[in-house]
Amino acid sequence: NAWPFTILFTLYNTIIQNVFALLFALALDTGLRGQKLYRTAIFLPCLISPIIVGFIWLRLYSDIFPSIADLMGFTSSFRLFGSPKTVLTGLLIANNWQWIGYWSLIYLAGLQSVPNELYEAARVDGAPLLSRFIHITIPMLAPAFTICIVGITTGSLKVYDLLVSSTGGGPGRASTSIIYLTYNTAISGRQYGYGSALSMSLIFVLLLVAVIQLSVLRKREVQL
Description:
The chain is mainly alpha-helical. It has ten helices and no strands. The protein is flat.
């Protein structure tokens, strides 16, 4: 089950982080009051070790959220790490809480590098907001898309630290990533040959994904 979990985690993580990071960047680029405070607030979680993040969300799901729900009279269970059906959702929430701020700053830097003259010319021509976003903002953000998509994808394929302190690969093996399985096989299980084969499969997939993404995204940059 290690590869299916790793692929699903990577797919959902890449989509969610890119979408929300771009939305946060767009919000911060509108000239909000207290913009520096908001930037700091969304960036702070990425300074925390993934091990600590895992402990934080394990405690939130197992103790804090259920206690708050009991006080408010709710019967919903927040123990997302305790079920194979919800563990992926719980891990996605924890991981995105930590990293969305980091990638949003990259998008924000890309937004602030777009020349204002392009937007002014579009306004003079009567282009609506959505049209300006599609035909100016998105093309000019092509380099930022390349950095964020490749970075998030390769980082998600290598998820390990978060699992160690939160789920331990469980329940059962529902959240066992390929790196977690490699460690347990080669180090804990002392099956060094099989562990080496698992690590080589991960290296092959990382290289394949990175090459495909870079070739497609950089070609898009050239076209734009």
